[in-house]
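Please fill in the sequence for the structure shown.

STRUCTURE ENCODING:
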């Protein structure tokens, strides 16, 4: 996760009693906001379906503000899908973080496309500056889809850029986060 990604997602860890249900996060014993497990929301099998080839997990990062997970096609470091997730104590705080992420992308002069019918609000950046990867001396471009869904902000990142693949990653994550254990 780059500093720019963390900056866009904003501060998510807040002490208090408010929590997010089930896999989307909760409150730990000390009362601090816990974050969702990005690799639990975007699985290796999901990534294989999205990229169309066998993948291996590349990252599984957890922090106080967000978690991030990425998968790369086995033998092809130029094809990657990942997910960043931040759960917030309230829908208002999540909406503020989403708004800051969009404003920061605009400030950076990036092209932004609105996306309909995905979460409460969503936007796609066809070529983001949040992720850097160089393979064989060639800098790769990433597409980034950010979605506000209740108290959670999701960001899918894909190389080569693909709005539909990023959308598939977000849909898998949201679908899994909304399921309740039996």
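FILLED IN BY: designer on duty
SEQUENCE:
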């Amino acid at each position: 996760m780059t500093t720019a990604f963390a900056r866009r997602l904003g501060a998510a860890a807040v002490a208090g009693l408010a929590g997010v249900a089930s896999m989307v996060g909760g409150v730990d014993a000390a009362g601090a906001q816990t974050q969702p497990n990005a690799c639990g929301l975007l699985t290796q099998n999901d990534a294989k379906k999205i990229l169309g080839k066998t993948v291996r997990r590349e990252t599984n990062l957890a922090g106080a503000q967000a978690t991030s997970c990425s998968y790369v096609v086995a033998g092809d470091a130029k094809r990657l899908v990942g997910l960043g997730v931040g759960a917030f104590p309230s829908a208002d705080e999540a909406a503020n973080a989403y708004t800051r992420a969009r404003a920061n992308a605009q400030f950076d002069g990036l092209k932004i496309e609105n996306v309909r019918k995905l979460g409460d609000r969503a936007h796609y950046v066809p070529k983001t500056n949040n992720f850097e990867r160089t393979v064989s001396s060639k800098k790769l471009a990433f597409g980034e889809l950010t979605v506000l869904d209740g108290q959670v902000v999701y960001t899918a990142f894909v190389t080569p850029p693909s709005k539909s693949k990023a959308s598939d990653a977000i849909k898998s994550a949201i679908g899994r986060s909304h399921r309740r254990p039996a």
